[in-house]
Amino acid sequence: MKTLTETMRGLAARSPWIYRINAGSCNGCDVECATTACIPRYDVERLGCQYCGSPRHADIVLITGPLTARIKDDVLRVYAEIPDPKVTVAVGICPISGGVFRESYAVHAPMDQYIPIDVNVPGCPPRPQAIIEGVALAIDIWRERL
Amino acid sequence: MLANYSALFAVLAFPGGLFALAIGLALKGADRRLAARLQRRVGPPLAQPFFDLVKLARKRTMVPDIAAKPVFLGAPLIGAASMLLAAALVPIAGVYTPDPALGDLLVLLYLLTVPAVVLMVSGSASGSPFGAIGFSREMALMLAYEGPLVLVVAAVAMRTGAGMGARVSFSLSEIVAYQQAHGAFLFDPMLWPALLAFLAFYPANLGIVPFDIPEAETEVLEGPLLEYSGPALGLFKVMSALKAVVVLSLGIALFFPMAPAGLAGLAVQLAKLLLLMLLGVTVLRVSCGRMRIDQAFRFFLKWPLALSLLSLVIVSFA
């Protein structure tokens, strides 16, 4: 028999709010993220997801871009503002390895040197289906952390 | 003593409190679902606002370093509490008549301004520049829409009072009883301008799209709510769900409180609320863009104010 806490956790896990951080991305992945949410075909609101404008409201963070030197401190600061429990998804090849910017002096990739990454969604840019799968995996991880 | 307990029950369980919250959340869910369908999406489940609330209750509340902590955390409590009380003040035709000791229409008018004030206070207490922008917009919008609301209420009160041989009647129960005896104000040409003014007022009070200027997500990132997280943000969601029920029920009580007694009356009330929410809120918010604050301010000081004033003048000379 499920306890009340578990039931509540199950209900809470159906409301993952998504926040996007652009860590110096070329905007390709951001366009794909926006496509995933905004067009009817891939409607992620059916999973209970909702894009929010404030890091304080976020549960799942989508990070794009190779973490450029210029933006690193700001990304870490915004990341710290997201209340726990949270799950991080790296979207695109840049946060995973640096992609075409790898070994550049201006780039601090891979991202997981600074921020714990839970799900990697590779691609340049990844397809919307891949991003949705990444979000679905993140929801499973998030359920455990709630 | 018994009267005290029934008042407490009215505030906490029915028709305020749990009942109003459940209805409010269900209405919000229906609104989001229909909005998705109108955009040819699947949309979230009907219980989505409820899931959101459970989620927010399990998150951590963070307070920014520069925020005034007692005000920042106290404001949402006051907002939710005021709406809880307001929900117990609105009669449901044939089902519920509020205890006169709880307060009349004037108390309800004051309570209806509390959420806007709470948003202003919390926006400025959060210390965020977006909160400050939200604060100034909320204040401008409130100044613009409160006038028409007061005049609409005064027109309805005078119409009822004139019909009952008195000068004015600020008791919502009397207004409902009068309409049930003499026909709804919806079909009274003297009050049509007031009805139009009310139809312009409630989207602004509920913060939906043509007038969601203070919380504009895409401009000021939900303004006053920007720095809130966890249970405190949940209280704001509770407040807005309750406010939807209160404002729409007030509209029903002022203009069309026709319903059979008993459980059927409750069903009719729910049907009216759902209809108002879907036609008046969802269709409106998916079919327009957002106004600028100066446009909204000018709009409210021009049309709704003139219409409600016209209604008041007609009623007082009739």
Description of the molecule:
The complex is a heterodimer of chains A (146) and B (318). Chain A is 36% helix and 14% strand. Chain A is of the alpha/beta class and 146 residues long. The longest helix of chain A has 18 residues, at 128-145. Chain B is mainly α and 318 residues long. Chain B has one domain. Chain B has helices at residues 2-12, 17-38, 48-58, 69-87, 105-125, 129-163, 172-182, 192-206, 217-220, 230-255, 263-287, 293-317. Chain B starts with a helix and ends with a helix. The mean pLDDT of chain B is 81. Chains A and B meet through helix 1 of A and helix 3 of B.
Short summary:
The complex is a heterodimer of chains A (146) and B (318). Chain A is of the alpha/beta class.
Q: Characteristics of this structure?
A:
heterodimer; A: 146 residues; alpha/beta; Rossmann fold; five-stranded parallel beta sheet; 5 helices; 5 strands; 36% helix; B: 318 residues; mainly alpha; 12 helices; 71% helix
Task: Present the secondary structure layout.
The complex is a heterodimer of chains A (146) and B (318).
Chain A: H1 4-12, E1 17-22, H2 28-38, E2 50-51, E3 60-64, H3 72-80, E4 87-91, H4 93-97, E5 119-121, H5 128-145
Parallel strand pairs in A: 1-2, 1-3, 3-4, 4-5
Helix pairs in contact in A: 2-5
Chain B: H1 2-12, H2 17-38, H3 48-58, H4 69-87, H5 105-125, H6 129-163, H7 172-182, H8 192-206, H9 217-220, H10 230-255, H11 263-287, H12 293-317
